[in-house]
Write a structure and sequence with these properties.
Layout: E1 2-6, H1 12-21, E2 25-29, E3 41-44, H2 49-58, H3 62-70, E4 75-78, H4 80-85, E5 86-90, E6 99-104, E7 115-121, E8 124-130, E9 135-139, E10 144-149, E11 152-158, E12 161-164, H5 175-186
Parallel strand pairs: 1-2, 1-3, 3-4, 4-12, 5-6
Antiparallel strand pairs: 6-9, 7-8, 10-11, 11-12
Length: 187
């Protein structure tokens, strides 16, 4: 498995390290030439979604990555990555708009409001680390809810897209990556 990780801002290094520990060949996507190579999946990390949205456009990455996602490239978006995928963004501007959800940015407050909890994710209990996290306010069409925290949706899947409001790269549990790898196998 060869997985590109958007590396223009945010927690990309942590995702690359986690993916490599799980046996994937992960590489940074920083420039347009980085996506000219073949890859099986894409990770959109946590960070600052507004900055990432701007950099995607400034670097010429937006249109080709959106085309790849729309063509079925498996994608995992975490925290800000979830916001980048969302069709509707409360308190922000949509980026790719490929995931049929409405998200609320910074829904759990500021950096000081970060927390860790244990919740069910796709049928198993895992540790979830939230840092200035969004949550999903509503889902449309065939979007599957995978996890909730305090009645708020924090992980979803739709077709080739998997999104989580929390940071799986900052925990030892591999459930989110395992589900992502299953989507790679189907593609």
């Amino acid at each position: 498995m060869r997985i590109g990780v958007l590396a223009v801002q945010g927690a990309f290094a942590e995702h690359i390290a986690a993916l490599k520990l799980l046996g994937a060949d992960a590489f940074e996507i920083r420039q347009l030439r980085d996506i000219s190579q073949d890859f099986d999946g894409l990770v959109l990390p946590g960070g600052e979604s507004t900055v990432m949205n701007k950099l995607l456009r400034d670097l010429g990455l937006f249109a080709p990555l959106k085309a790849k996602i729309e063509a079925g490239l498996p994608v995992l978006g975490t925290c800000a990555g979830m916001i980048l995928l969302a069709k509707h963004v409360e308190g922000g501007i949509p980026c790719f708009g490929t995931l049929d959800v409405t998200v609320k940015r910074n829904a759990y407050g500021r950096q000081l409001g970060s927390f860790v909890c244990r919740e069910q994710f796709a049928g198993q209990e895992i540790t979830m680390r939230f840092i200035r996290a969004p949550y999903v306010e509503s889902v449309e069409h065939d979007t599957e809810i995978l996890a909730e925290h305090d009645g708020k949706i924090v992980a979803v899947r739709q077709s080739n897209q998997l999104a989580a409001a929390f940071h799986p790269e900052l925990t030892e549990n591999t459930a989110v990556y395992d589900l992502f790898f299953k989507s790679l196998a189907k593609a």
